[in-house]
Amino acid sequence: MTRGRARAADIHALARALPHVSVYDVDSPTPVYQVGGKSFVFFRTPRPDAADPVTGQRYDDVVVFWVADLAAKEALVQDPSTPFFTTPHFDGHPSVLLRLSRIGELSRLELAEVIEDAWLSRASARRGRLYLEGPDRITG
Description:
This protein is 31% helix and 19% strand. The mean pLDDT is 91. The longest helix has 15 residues, at 108-122. By secondary structure, it is α+β, with helices and mostly antiparallel strands. α1 packs across α3 (108-122).
């Protein structure tokens, strides 16, 4: 794992490095990463629920990451040191949002942990167990 600040390209590389990953809309600006037919990371199109509070302009750089549960979500969005956020559209949904314009606030290792956790939250229990027991983990 290289050190340094995270970049948008790291999302793609890290998600693809996980086992059993399928990528949908790979050539579009809004690809979807899935494991076992379940999305774990996806890039959103601009939506009215994620917009600049001053100008009202919809964010065009939002990425969604699944999390294990609502407690994990709260830990990420309530910590002011992280760039993660949520919107009312995602109330009760175990996922967090990140603007690509803020991805550099994360280290590549921090991003890898978020992506790994997203994958684990959506992979089957068997796949998750085998991955955690194996030598090829992306974070460690």
